[in-house]
Amino acid sequence: MLKRLWHILGPVFCALLLALGLIALYPTKVNHSLRAEREDAVALTKTNFKSKYKKVRALTDPNHHFVPFFGSSEWLRIDKMHPSVLAEAYKRSYIPYLLGQRGAASLTHFFGIQQISKELDYKQAVYVISPQWFVAKGANAGAFQNYFSNGQLIDFLQNQTGSQYDRYAAKRFLKMYPDSSLKGMMEKVAKGQKLSAADRKSLDFKDKIFQKEDGLFSHFSVSNNQKKKVQPQADSLPKTFSYQKLGEIASQDGKTATSNNRFGIENTFYTIRVSHQLDKLKGSQKRFDYTKSPEYNDLQLVLNQFAMSHTNVLFVIPPVNSKWAAFTGLDQSMYQKSVAKIKYQLQSQGFTNIADFSKDGGKAYFMQDTIHMGWNGWLALDKAINPFLSKPSDAPTYTINDQFLTKAWAKYTGKPEEFGK
Fold first, then answer.
1. Which residues contact 144 (CB under 8 A, 6 or more apart)?
2. How many domains does the chain have?
3. The pTM is what?
4. Is residue 313 a part of any domain in this protein?
5. Is 295:133 a contact under the CB 8 Å cutoff?
6. DSSP 8-state code for residue 373
7. Do the Cβ atoms of 318 and 363 come closer than 8 Å?
8. In whole angstroms, what is the distance from residue 318 CA to residue 339 CA?
9. Could you read off the pLDDT of 10-37 as tens digits, one per residue?
């Protein structure tokens, strides 16, 4: 009987021991590799999005200026005018490190930033804020769990100081991920209680294991986006940089790519995602409201983190496709109210670097689909990104206002400048 059990379970047991041995012995030292870092920067996989090792490796490279580009699904649309392609084609002084996934929003980015908070100290970043994130229920729990790793939570717990921001983040986390293995510690933080010495020792041990796992398994996550998507398109662009020439190429590409519909939507997207349900989608967004949402409080978490890290951030506010908005009944007045609320939350606290494209959704070939920029939109964005990153400057003086962490602000629909008066 024992022999039979050994034949069945023995290989599994040996494999487990081997895996544990590899993890225990694997070095945690970061080894820089420009080729690997460039691939990671445009990989746009869930593994890369969650990996601390990969992000830290690129952001600490002493010889190359990788800059985190936070967002959601817009970075996935790599065409000739994409920020990564232009940076490659014209040998910019910076390399975008794309941190975006479908459904990712501020709460996801807040916990992701816990892994690279030291790497953001006195550095730069680009952060896309889509008003579409600001729905009534806020971030999607499924998406949040999908892009979350225990490593993020370990870093958060090790860094927490008992502030109201820590308590808020813990409460939001417990609501979004109630079955976490570290639920007990998060409940303590949510209640304002200090972690015990035993908790701290446990976190230190878990952190060592996670870093070894992350470093080991990161080598098995390989992307070819740089080689297959970015480099070929960069090579196809004119050797001499010219916005006029690039604009002509962008407009022609946009015209060719949106030839089968009246909305200016990319052909394949329109055929697969839109054409078969036009009747259903007509007028479907009449009741959408982005002015009241817990997302405003989640954004405040991120802003407070940037302020603590003295990170100089360029915030990007994208538009929606105007033709599509008219078709679906999306209230543009409501959209602009949400933009005004976002901008007030930013500007009143000193986050004054803002590229606001919210009124440009009707420009020719500015949008690639219903809500994502492309072609001429990317070029317009480059005119804001390139000077910001090519000539680094100190972050503005930030003055954090804790009122933006309250439910009152999340639900506020009046004139932003009159809030609290």
1. 107, 108, 176, 177
2. 1
3. 0.92
4. yes
5. yes
6. B
7. no
8. 10
9. 554 444 444 444 444 444 577 889 999 9
